[in-house]
Amino acid sequence: MTRSPDDPITDGPIRNHTMRKLLICVRHPFDQWNAPLWFSERLRRDFPQLNVVHLPDYKRVDEEIVDAEIVVAWSIRPEQIGTAKKLRWIHSPAAAVHQLMFPELVQSEIVLTNARAVHGPVVAEHVIAFIFALAKKIPDSVRLQAKHVWGQQILWDELPRIREVVGATVGMVGLGSIGRAVAKSAKGLGMRVIAVREHPEKGSEGADAVLGPAQIDEVFRQADYIVLAAPVTDSTKAVANAERLALMKADACLINVGRGPLVDEAALAAALGEKKIGGAALDVFPKEPLPADSPLWDVPNLLITPHTAALTDKLWERHYALFSDNLRRYLAGQPLSAVVDKHKGY
């Protein structure tokens, strides 16, 4: 019997409806974000006590979520929470979960976890690559190469000049899994790290200084590289606005690997166009894919990567390690790791 593309992916034609159900529905236009078939197959092998249902798209979510106890998904609609009477735990393969912060879920007893431990170290590598690219003017060299121009004098004369990163200051906005990994790598390169986090009393996490939200302007003033790695909340939207960009040094650079809404893009484009700051690098945007007619493509001294900071050939192996460990904890009645505070949004 041939399986329809709309059918759930299972090991056989008969599904056990009396078993505790784990529903996987992770669908994205970009292939690498989709849970591979081996992910659910390995879960069935390692957790035979569970009925693992892996949907290829969203067509049957309404039907399948009704009796699911555990769901792995990017997002769920509010009305689906109402019908999922057995739902106890949602795991998001993303680090950002602002799309799930609606009242029906926030006010429920459903536990929400995310994949911040999966993405943090990999995204931190991208941040360090951004810092080197901006400091050494790699994008400018690539453009000159395409024109067959030996641009040594050009690269040196155009401000900001090529510089070394040793002794430079990294200003972290957010000190979660990404921020901690960036701080560790930056310190290893001989850089100074200052950070702003909501609760400075939680510790420095390797940073030279940690400030509270009320002191964020000081981070923008001091840093040579501002790195945005905070969750999206009401207090962090457009945290890099015109007023704070104006506080930055003339040769300082802004880096965003958090989420697009952290940056006022119009203000950033203006600051770069008027050469009020040295440069910027963005991996995330409010609207993705970035439209072909977006003015950002042509902004000077702006390096754009297409939301690739978290990509790695080990991505889903890392997802499996995190989720399977948490699944063992859940089935044993133990506390889960990477639990999201639904009232704070991260």
CATH topology of the largest domain: Rossmann fold
Q: Report the β-strand fraction as a percent range.
A: 5-15%
**The CATH C-level class name of the largest domain:** Alpha Beta
Specify the CATH architecture of the largest domain: 3-Layer(aba) Sandwich
Succession of helices and strands: EHEHEHEHEHHHEHEEHEHEHEEH
Q: Describe the strand arrangement of the main beta sheet, using strand numbers.
A: 8-7-6-9-10-11-12
Count the DSSP helices.
12
What does the overall shape look like? elongated
Class based on secondary structure composition and strand pairing = alpha/beta
Mean pLDDT: 94
The largest β sheet comes out as:
7 strands, parallel
Distance between the termini: 45 Å
Specify the CATH homologous superfamily of the largest domain. NAD(P)-binding Rossmann-like Domain
Describe the SSE topology.
Elements: E1 20-25, H1 37-46, E2 50-54, H2 61-64, E3 70-73, H3 78-83, E4 89-91, H4 103-106, E5 111-113, H5 116-135, H6 138-146, H7 152-157, E6 169-173, H8 177-188, E7 192-196, E8 209-211, H9 216-222, E9 225-228, H10 242-245, E10 253-256, H11 265-273, E11 279-282, E12 302-304, H12 315-331
Parallel strand pairs: 1-2, 1-3, 3-4, 4-5, 6-7, 6-9, 7-8, 9-10, 10-11, 11-12
Helix pairs in contact: 5-8
